[in-house]
What we know:
The structure holds 2 protein chains of 2 kinds.
Chain A: H1 11-22, H2 26-37, H3 40-56, H4 67-86, H5 117-122, H6 125-133, H7 137-148, H8 153-160, H9 164-188
Helix pairs in contact in A: 2-3, 2-4, 3-4, 4-8, 6-9, 7-9, 8-9
Chain B: H1 6-17, H2 23-35, H3 37-56, H4 64-78
Domain RNA polymerase sigma-70 region (chain A): 25-88
Keywords (chain A): Sigma factor, Transcription, Transcription regulation
Family (chain A): Belongs to the sigma-70 factor family. ECF subfamily.
Amino acid sequence: MSDKVRQNYTEKQKVNVFEQEFLPHIDSMYNFAYRLTFEEDDAKDLVQETYLKAYRFIDSFEQGTNAKAWLFRILKNSFINDFRKKSKQPSKVDYNEVETYYNSEDVDPTITTDLRVETIQHMIGDEVSNALNALAVDFRTVIILCDLEGFTYEEMAKILDIPIGTVRSRLHRARNLLKDKLKIYASSMGYK
Amino acid sequence: MQCPDKANCFEILELMMDGEATEEQKKSFELQIQHCMPCYKKYHLDVAIKEVLQTKLNNKPAPVDLVDSIKLKINNNTI
Lengths: 192, 79
């Protein structure tokens, strides 16, 4: 679970780490789980499973380091290993065409040019939420981690087990896809 | 109007937005954005979307019984 030196916590220290460093993140964890699964019961199960694993592997966690990133990593792995298998989520996206995005000529498709800042600012939470939820899970995940949870690229790379370059290309692609969804939504609602 | 250095410009825009740009990149951004209307527009749209994501999405509190249920399971497993 971690390549760091194993700690040797006493039972009391374990409870302390768990309560002081792990439990304060429960709301963020629940929201992440809910945005992955779209089901309250599944989100609860996923968070519970994550916390039980975190406790079981607590000796791999160094007190005072980034508990939130550590927990998010466990949750993401649990989701991939256990939940995604039995759900109807689409399978992984093919990223091969993504890697060269900064050099691509069609990096700024016209679909994004007439979406206006004011239009975005007038949208309500549900509208934005629906657009985000319409993205494939791997794209949705990077936007949640970066924009909603404020993780750095480096933290995201660790949570997702991918290089920073891939974090950035995936995020870039995800944002363009989200913009497309928002644009389609804005047009359908008659926003100008 | 087209940005003369779109690839580089977009890359820096994203780094700026996510607070990941180096000092050198920040300087380059300040210079570029003054002269580049397409990139300026794109940047403001991207920032607006990021802000809307941060401020308008509903965050649910975790269900009240979830923490108790987790603690109970841990206690049962460790006794």
